[in-house]
């Protein structure tokens, strides 16, 4: 017996197109018609393959965090607390000013304007941010001896500071600030990083 009708779209390419659309326009600014145009699919096909807009958005965010927005994982691999902070900031600058991707951050863009009717999206994005803060804080606590933070440092506050600065870098990038200017901001931030006395 012959199989069903062959799929006429590439799911990876379609999801990537959705990711780029949400990244450019944010969750609230993206209409279903924007998604169908970008993905080259009809609305019924999108719903059948990916679910409703929110479900598709969550899948796009997962794609983003595993790809262009993967700078947290890169930072966590560093061997000192200071290297983690520097890598996190500079990797974020590169990600939010990509040559072949929209400027800014998909998650930040979407969190800036969410309709109260989409409270579950806001909760989802808030949860991602808080998870990132917690992961950073836990990693900052984990560095031993000279590789770690000086006595009296608050890993939780420093982790939140890093996330706040990265979000600011993303907003600046989305509004047109050049990569070199944002690198300077990252370097300035590192001048404030707590260091152990020599």
From TrEMBL:
SUPFAM superfamilies with a match to the protein in the record? Homeodomain-like, Tetracyclin repressor-like, C-terminal domain
Tell me the domain of life: Bacteria
Known DNA-binding region: 31-50
Q: Which InterPro entries match?
A: Homeodomain-like_sf, HTH_TetR, Tet_transcr_reg_TetR-rel_C_sf
Q: Which UniProt keywords apply?
A: DNA-binding, Transcription, Transcription regulation
Does the keyword section mention Chaperone? Answer: no
List each copy of the HTH tetR-type domain by range.
Answer: 8-68
**Under which name does UniProt file this protein?**
TetR/AcrR family transcriptional regulator
């Amino acid at each position: 017996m012959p199989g069903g009708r062959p799929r006429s779209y590439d799911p990876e390419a379609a999801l990537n197109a959705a990711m780029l659309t949400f990244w450019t326009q944010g969750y609230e600014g993206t209409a279903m018609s924007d998604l169908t145009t970008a993905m080259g699919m009809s609305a019924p096909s999108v719903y059948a393959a990916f679910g409703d807009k929110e479900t598709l958005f969550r899948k796009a965010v997962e794609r983003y965090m595993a790809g262009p927005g993967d700078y947290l994982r890169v930072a966590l691999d560093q061997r000192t607390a200071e290297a983690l902070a520097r890598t996190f900031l500079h990797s974020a600058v590169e990600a939010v000013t990509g040559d072949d991707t929209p400027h800014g951050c998909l998650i930040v863009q979407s969190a800036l304007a969410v309709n109260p009717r989409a409270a579950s999206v806001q909760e989802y994005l808030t949860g991602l941010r808080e998870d990132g803060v917690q992961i950073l804080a836990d990693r900052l606590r984990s560095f031993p001896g000279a590789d770690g933070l000086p006595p009296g440092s608050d890993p939780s506050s420093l982790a939140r500071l890093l996330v706040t600065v990265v979000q600011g870098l993303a907003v600046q990038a989305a509004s047109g600030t050049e990569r070199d200017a944002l690198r300077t901001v990252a370097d300035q931030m590192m001048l404030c990083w707590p260091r152990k006395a020599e």
